């Protein structure tokens, strides 16, 4: 006979259960139903389950000795679509052309003008249903305003730039000059820049205001630039927070304040425009950034996306629909002490928004991080791959007669910065592919959108500024349309298996019904220590009929 022992639930266990229940109710009430996809619930940090409310910061300086667990996994395959035959660089923003009338056999052209706010943003009813939750985001707009004014009507793109005092360097002046300089007269009417001087001390904030009033008087008067400061009442407890991930107390406070800075900036800007672009104060800016962003928004059309990424790392260059900013601000304010703001967003994006596909990443990047001095006192940023020098994109193609039909291009080679695999294949807006940590049997796959007759294909590697980043031995293979259910599966036919001076060329061939071409690394290019060198592909050329 089995005897069951009675068990009493102690007060501590009961309190923990109640806190967990309250946390669950907060998520359901404030953030609405969560749509989990692809088992992303399993990827949520366990720390989420221990937070009772963002209105109550932790009371004790609870420390954990558990390191942040790092999982080793194979590099993901990055796939990017390249449409060369129908490149459209229209500046007129949102005209869409449809063809219809199939029954009569006469295709008629109809111009449809798309309203951004109605078609691309989430329905207004969705936001109205959260008004009770947005009361947690209350702030005093008049108290925050320092110079300039908010737009009377929503503009196309609002740009948010938080800036804080640094000991030896000022970055905001250069960043603002370039953002303003690269806008034409029409674009200035479609844009609004909010500079958030996020210092608690009045001195640095006043210096920022005086500088902007002197240097950008016309832009302030025209309503292009606005400067705001923190509403201290918006900020929860920032001292004696749990030292998660073995962060030092000063770093915990710094990143936690940064989260609240962003939440306040999101809340301030969410009704000023249709889209919101997040920047930092220490970046470089592409000369055509505004036009290229608008064209990319138009190209993404009505597809579901949570953000479009125009930068290289972190939060720099992320563009959101302003209808999503309220929910994001709530989430960041709730978990401000657990993770840095960019990691919080990625968890929120996976669970509550739509997730992001490679199609939502714009390459080459329009914004690049430059600052070495962090806003965290005494810390300098380490630039990734400091020995590698970024070079401008190539001016023209070497093989001007190549057709380069529309294709999806993928690789499992780890990309360096924004030098993605689509660059050497595009007919315009050329770029390099620059990869690191190259391994044996790494590959590049071209999956053509339509089957074709292949007559030649060339991969060229290396450049004047990276002369040793070459292919040594590799092979080219093809599959026909009958075997192309998955271009990464077996069933390839060998086309060529040699490389000379960093170039592999199939020569003249005539292969009908080709759907996929695969280039595979068969011998590593190594340095004198036996380490694999990086790989720079400067051009991929395809000829077809």
From TrEMBL:
InterPro entries membership: Glyco_transf_54, MGAT4
Listed name of the protein: Alpha-1,3-mannosyl-glyco 4-beta-N-acetylglucosaminyltransferase C-like
Domain MGAT4 conserved region intervals: 144-381
Organism of this sequence: Paramuricea clavata (Red gorgonian)
> Which Pfam families has this protein been placed in?
MGAT4_cons
Molecular functions (GO terms): acetylglucosaminyltransferase activity
Q: Which PANTHER family match?
A: ALPHA-1,3-MANNOSYL-GLYCOPROTEIN 4-BETA-N-ACETYLGLUCOSAMINYLTRANSFERASE B (PTHR12062:SF0), N-ACETYLGLUCOSAMINYLTRANSFERASE VI (PTHR12062)
Give one GO biological process term.
Answer: protein N-linked glycosylation
